[in-house]
Queue: 2 jobs
Job 1
Amino acid sequence: MTQFWWVIYPYLTLAIAVVGTLYRYRSDQIGWGSKSSEWLEKRFLRWGSLLFHWGILFIIVGHVVGLLIPVQAFDTLGIHRELYHRTADLFGGLAGIATWVGVLLLLIRRMVFDGVRRNSSTADFVALVLLFLVITLGDMQTVIMNNAVGPYGYRHTVGPWLRGLLILHPDARLMVGVPIILQVHIILSFALFAVSPFTRLVHVWSAPLRYPTRAPIQYRSRTGFRR
Amino acid sequence: MRIKAQIAMVMNLDKCIGCHTCSVTCKNVWTNRPGAEYMWFNNVETRPGPGYPDEWEDQGRYRGGWKLYKGKLQLRSGGPVSRLANIFHNPDQPTMTDYYEPWTYDYENLIESPKGKHQPTARPRSLITGKVMDSPVWGPNWNDDLAGGGEIAARDPNLGHMQAHVAFEYEQAFMMYLPRICEHCLNPSCVAACPSGAIYKRDEDGVVLVDQEACRGWRFCVSACPYKKVYFNWNTHKAEKCNFCYPRIEAGLPTTCSETCVGRIRYLGPILYDADRVVEAASVTDERDLYESQLAVFLDPSDPEVIAEARKAGISDAWMEAARRSPVYKMAVEWKVALPLHPEYRTLPMVWYVPPLSPIMSQLVNEDDLSADGYLPTIDQMRIPMEYLASILTAGDVAVIRRVLLRLTAMRAHMRQKNVGDLESSRLVREAGMSIAQLEDMARMFGVAKYADRFVIPTAKRHDEANLEYQQGACSLEELAPPEGILPPLVRPGGGRV
């Protein structure tokens, strides 16, 4: 079972995510996008979307720092365990709460407003509910458990496990004994990766980073244009 | 010189009777699909009025178009970085309430109701939620023919800076129609605002189109267009806009709205312009210079240097010939009687308007006794205030409006008195600055308005196309209305679905 959840399952979901995304990109350009519903409802979206998106961008950076950078690197830099955890607790916690409030608002909005609900597909709800669960569990660990029970040293267990996974040397034993909240958080996160190609979540791959540097007015020839 | 060609349009407002035929034929061709029901690529507004969408000219509210920022052209909503910072929530995007909630009627109830004491009714039902609506409260032409009176008409953003001149007492009320489509601007702010680069302007004919496969639904085009002529399809989650009926234009046919206009108010023809001078023209400091600066971007198709450059740029002789015969070039450049819509938005729009004249003529009581010169003072006392027309067509420059009205008046006076006496020496014709030949040419163009004179549209160069046989009969619209967006099930009061 350990092997399944911490080796087979992550690779399986990641494979679905990669292959699924490529397939969707090739076959469904017309459906690729963020599926905005701002036209139907704007007030809740403003708070929900802004809190959620900026929060989750911050949290992604936090996860990279916390999981992909080995604990030894922090030690060499002279950042102690105590300082690290306090910082992570404070900023991660605040961003976590903001994101959670945001995703909650978005979920309520999607269920309550008639126009938005009727214009939502099952995939929209699956993505949103999964996000809500993942963020709730993450916040439970960071905000509640860390302060109630004490910080958990994930940099010695989850961190090395994830890095091993990424360099194709997974070690499932590292995940034994990890708090159950974190375990479910991780499993649901990989589920989110797996469903993402089949939902609106594909829009994250279309972040228009080239936009600020391109010419403002775009001309295209009627016949000569090649994508 | 980077020479490009564009098929441009002129609408002669003098002859618009506000019948909405253009809107209806356009809708039947392009926007009778789920998600597009509320879109009017072509709509006809009664002015004064808030227009559609609500108060679209109020750029303090929608922040569309361009502005000068430290002497340089910038989108009114801010630079590219601030746009990306707003990507999670577009503060300027209009919502359904700014347009209207699209609805249909419960027609089935008329057929399927059991026999009863009362006539069955077809109640309105929302196309968004499927619910029965108690009463629709706003629509795309709710204030047609000044319906709603001074209360609604007063919401016209153009009236803001001319309150003193306008009264809504019955005796002084004025009214005109303003049919609107996408302006297919030379400096389109929607194109500049698109983070995905999905909106583009075509080299060959200047049509501004949305690449539906590249559109990611960020919606900045919707808010950046000061004319509010890019729409968000809530069903496909992509932007859509007037495409100038490009399949027809490519075949040398007029757009649907032009073809079906019963008043023959629309004219189509090529204009050549220098793409290198567009930004410079849009960046002049004084808003009132924008009309002249846009005229300076247009090129004379009879100029040998322009002809040589055009050939180098791959513009065919057929296009050059059409550009020389173009009614749009005549009205905009030669006669200078057509004017751009809201040049102060700095987008250099390419659908121009001949301002309406009729209301002043109806004020004349003793037209038979009036000499040609007698018309002159009436121009300044017309029913539609010149300030109002100037606010719409010349960024407030009344002198330009006056000149155009003078020319149109001279044309009328001349044609009416053609058999009465020679007007060549009259003050009216002299002040209009037109020759008798030009006036008669103009009268034929506006009055007779023959099909072949109104529409001079060269066909697209077909031999450039790679897959002509394959493209024949293909319809790019088929994928735009996926099945998940079909009519929502009807919800009758009491909750039962049918």
Job 2
Amino acid sequence: MGENPVSAELIVQEAGPSLTVQDRGRTGYLAMGLSRGGAADTLALAEGAALLRQSPDLAVIEMAGMGGRFEATEDIRIALTGAPMRASIDGAPLRWNASHLLPRGAELKIGAVTRGAYGYLHLGGGVDLPERLAARATQMTAGLGEPLDAGTRLPVGEDPRDDTGWLLPVDDRCAGGRLRVVPSLQTELFPKDQLDRFENVEFSRDARANRMGVKVTQDGPGFAVDGGLSVLSEVILPGDIQVTGDGAPFILMAECQTTGGYPRIGTVIPADLPRVAQAPQGAPLRFSFVTLDEAVAAQRAYLKHCAALGKRLQPLVRDPADIPDLLSYQLIGGVTAGRDLDTEKERP
Amino acid sequence: MTEVTYPILRTAGIDGMLVTFGGALSEPANRAALAFRAAVDGEGWDGVEETSTSLVSTFLRFDPLHLGHSDLQSRLRELLQSQEWTQADLPEGRRFFRIPTVYGTDMAPQLDEAAEVAGLSRAEAIRTLSESRVRALAIGFAPGQPYLGELPEAWDIPRQQNLTPTVPKGALVVAIRQLVLFSVTTPTGWRHVGQTAFRLFRPDSDTPFVLRPGDEVQFVETPPEQMANMEKDPDGGAEWERIP
């Protein structure tokens, strides 16, 4: 921490199947075929930065579905954001969306998500790996980095602060919901009745979902443009909703390719992409077209929200109202203490 | 359907603007997209954050909170009217690469199938592919990965119905009178007809992305026993020269 000259490392003692280092990704390489990548839930980056009162550009650990077991070589500050997971330090349960002190040598254990898809572990000073192409984000589709293995030692950046014990109240974004969509390149090629249905039916997040894209399904007939499925290959952006051969919409995410030849029925606005990323399998999702002006206003509001997160912090106090909550956490922690490890052993 | 008059402007997402010079791939439309991108970069407009090209379009990513959609559109229309973009010169500093390529064998198992779909003998297929000097029309999909064209008309063959689950880095695949040289290991609907040892994406080098739009390439036939040697070199035995 601030006065400590020794640079800390975070040791990954056990790793869930998909722990990756992420940040805000790489911009400026679209012309060369490299998409932005970066954290699937960018709001979580802003929340972690607010909790640790540091820059949202610092790199974090993204945990898809399952966390791991960690130990720091010095006292460090941590924050936990995104999809809530069962977490403890030396057996004492931790609040999610909060900052904590991780004492040197203590065991930080993060289990499975309790809702949502991607949890985030933020470190005071950030994950200080060398940059590649001006970022630290793992982008496996481009061959930039690999998931973290057990035994990895991650350098922790210098941390000028030492305050922990903050809680950030957040609105739930792990249950799907209504997604605002602007028209995309081929929206007008879809027949009117299909566009109406696209806005009126409830979709469900399919099992097929990863950092590249999220498929959504519904019970009715599939979607298709009049002229067939093949359109001239054109630039793709995160949020674009492609309709592929089986007629199901596929929402492209942070690590999507940069061009594609499937027609796009619309584009989810950036402010709603964290809810797509965090929608668990089976979560209900709906699409509503908004105008570009409405979408730009929503983006302005989203950025304002991110910038003002620091003002929402509350001290993490154990007042009497919290006690039943704490007890229930401990109970859940006790019941499942062994099971998390068994689940990790079962993975391929 | 009503006739579309190109170029057209379309928005993409909340922060993208696409200027498209044709409804199908053509050499003039591709040339216009490249030249127009260079012109937009030359303007240096505040609020434009990044530009790129696809086969027939110029793309701009901008900050819509500081540069309004209608403001950007009117600037683009004015720039579009300043010259006939389909007759613009190709970018400067273009290069010509000769990349050694093993056609067919178990390294590129779909050569025979692709030749049959194109109505060519195996020898004709290799000859037409290896003698064609193709241009990088766009870089995209994966880092540093070129779409190259156009091949002779016989090669106007469709993509496969089903995806090949995986082709390796350096694979040369063909469909719709174009070649793609893969920069990463990936599934594809295009047919795998050649294999090179050329590395398109070198993230830790001074030139992470090797090919640029406008560069030209010939995939020169090489015997399979050369592959082991080629793999020792990130250039895969390729040579290049500047195009005057």
